[in-house]
């Protein structure tokens, strides 16, 4: 099933030291995945897409934009429904990124998608809705979570965003470790990145570690997802994190890894609720985040 191979979050490795980071990992259903499905002539999801495109309710809409949106929503939900029958855990459906700065638009879109999922009998407990972590997106997450709708906040590139997402009650908070590393190579004017580099730390790993410890030290319900993991060293550094998305080649490279516990990169759990309790945030960080979030909301 080539289309499933591109959904890296489906992979649940057999390595006992890291299995807890992958168990029940949400399967991500995004627009690029949908477009990939359409390019495969023999995909098992073809009927789900064809059924959506044949929907008379969508075809009857006079406005081109509304008709296209209707078809896209139906196709995403039909494929999501099929995936929910194939994998354990939850299916995360991406909300249109063009709504990133529209709190009420995001909420309306999630309600529309949830209604369609209800029509095909996918329980809301199996669903996440992936939302960009703009301030409008974080506020939408807060309001949706208050309704019992699980949200998945993505594009988190700063500790302020991560802390705000946790305080909003987001079910999953996703940090792109590798993308932040890429950004840091060409941008030297970000104080958070500069501070990590001065400590000799990778900015992406540093943010993921700090966000995980913040969430678990202060008892927020959120789970941290580390994505854009580029190599096995990243995996070793994040062992214990709630969720990890990693390419198959990185997971396979672990089979060849022979390490001892005293090595820098080894099968030793780095993150846990116990280590989070011991993690120290400076008074300045706590004060800054409190004031920043107060002013933002």
Plain-language structure description:
Helix content is 52%, strand content 10%. The protein has 297 residues and is of the alpha/beta class. Strands 1-2-3-4-5-6-7 form a 7-stranded parallel sheet. β6, α13 and β7 form a beta-alpha-beta unit. Pfam families: TAL_FSA. This is TRANSALDOLASE.
Descriptors:
single chain; 297 residues; alpha/beta; seven-stranded parallel beta sheet; 10% strand; globular; disordered N terminus
Give me a quick take on this structure.
The protein is α/β, with parallel strands linked by helices and 297 residues long. The protein has helices spanning 2-5, 19-22, 31-38, 46-53, 56-59, 64-84, 103-119, 135-146, 159-168, 177-186, 191-198, 203-217, 232-237, 248-253, 273-278, 283-296, and strands at residues 27-29, 91-94, 127-132, 151-156, 172-176, 223-227, 243-244.
List the strand order in the largest sheet: 1-2-3-4-5-6-7
What is the oligomer described by this structure?
Answer: single chain
- Please tell me how large the radius of gyration is: 20 Å
Give the total of beta strands.
7
> What sequence of helices (H) and strands (E) makes up the elements?
HHEHHHHEHEHEHEHHHEHEHHH
Unreliable spans are: 1-24
Alpha-beta classification: alpha/beta
Mean model confidence by pLDDT: 83
Alpha-carbon distance between the termini?
45 Å
How is the biggest beta sheet arranged? Answer: 7 strands, parallel
Helicity, in percent? 40-55%
How many individual helices?
Answer: 16
* Coarse morphology: globular
Indicate the proportion of strand residues: 5-15%
């Amino acid at each position: 099933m080539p289309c499933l191979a591109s959904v890296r979050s489906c992979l649940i490795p057999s390595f006992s030291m890291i299995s807890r980071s992958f168990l029940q990992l949400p399967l991500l259903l995004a627009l690029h995945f949908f477009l990939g499905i359409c390019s495969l002539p023999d995909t098992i999801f073809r009927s789900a897409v064809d059924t959506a495109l044949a929907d008379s309710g969508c075809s009857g809409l006079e406005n081109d934009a509304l008709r296209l949106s209707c078809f896209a929503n139906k196709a995403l939900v039909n494929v999501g429904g099929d995936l929910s029958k194939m994998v354990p855990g939850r299916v995360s459906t991406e909300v249109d990124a063009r709504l990133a700065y529209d709190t009420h638009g995001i909420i309306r879109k999630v309600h529309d998608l949830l209604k369609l999922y209800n029509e095909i009998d996918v329980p809301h407990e199996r669903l996440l809705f992936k939302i960009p972590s703009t301030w409008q997106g974080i506020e939408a997450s807060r309001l949706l979570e208050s309704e019992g709708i699980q949200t998945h906040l993505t594009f988190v590139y700063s500790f302020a965003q991560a802390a705000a997402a946790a305080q909003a009650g987001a079910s999953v908070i996703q940090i792109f470790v590798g993308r932040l590393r890429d950004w840091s190579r060409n941008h030297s004017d970000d104080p958070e990145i500069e501070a990590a580099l001065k400590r000799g730390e990778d900015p992406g790993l540093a943010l993921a570690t700090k966000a995980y410890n913040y969430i678990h030290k202060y008892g927020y319900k959120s789970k941290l997802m580390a994505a854009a993991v580029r190599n096995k060293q990243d995996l070793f550094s994040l062992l214990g994190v709630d969720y990890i998305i990693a390419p198959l080649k990185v997971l396979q490279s672990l089979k060849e890894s022979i390490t001892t516990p005293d090595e820098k990169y080894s099968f030793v759990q780095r993150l846990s609720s116990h280590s989070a309790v011991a993690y120290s945030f400076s008074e300045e960080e706590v004060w800054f985040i409190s004031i920043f979030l107060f002013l933002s909301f």
